[in-house]
Write a structure and sequence with these properties.
The chain is mainly alpha-helical and 180 residues long. Helices cover 86% and strands 0% of the residues.
Length: 180
């Protein structure tokens, strides 16, 4: 077997043929680059399609569970929120539902854009609202005052009185030390 040195053969060629060979090589590499870019785009498109199918599969399960979990968010709101009759609990539950839908839609978009895995993105809002539902059910069972505005106003007034009392007490102490 005899080894052929391509560089030596190219060196013997005239300049015009060398330029022609260089141009052919460049065209070959450009063609290969364009082919690889097209294949990468096709692969990305297939990944997005698979992610879309995975999202749809997980959504079928989570949507049925979401009804139950959102019930455990909305039902305790009726017993926790005492002011406003029926309207205030319904408005608050509607706001929770809108928050759930925004979070679900955001996570769905992140799964389809391949930022997050589909199973994680679709189940995360459900998990978050399951925890919220557990906390609200616990607070409702223990007769919580989370949404009672009067309770918060009383706490703020108590806190302000305490600060003013300490401040006035400190002024009295400073006055007493100055008199001595």
């Amino acid at each position: 077997q005899k080894c052929v040195n391509v560089n030596q053969i190219i060196e013997r060629l005239p300049v015009t043929e060398k330029d022609l060979i260089k141009e052919m090589i460049l065209n070959h590499w450009r063609s290969l680059d364009a082919f690889l870019e097209a294949e990468i785009l096709d692969l990305k498109g297939l990944q997005i399609k698979v992610a879309d199918y995975e999202v749809a599969w997980h959504e079928r399960i989570t949507m049925s569970l979401a009804c139950i979990i959102l019930f455990f968010v909305g039902a305790p709101l009726g017993s926790i929120i005492r002011k406003g009759g029926l309207g205030m609990p319904v408005v608050t539950a509607t706001l929770f539902f809108i928050l759930y839908m925004v979070l679900t839609d955001t996570m769905r978009s992140m799964a389809i854009e391949l930022i997050l895995p589909a199973y994680f993105a679709i189940w995360l809002p459900l998990l978050v609202f399951l925890l919220i539902g557990i906390v609200l059910t616990y607070k409702a069972a223990n007769d919580s005052v989370w949404f009672d505005l009067d309770w918060y106003v009383q706490r703020v007034i108590f806190f302000l009185k305490k600060i003013l009392f300490l401040r006035n007490n400190n002024k009295v102490e400073k006055y007493k030390t100055q008199l001595k």
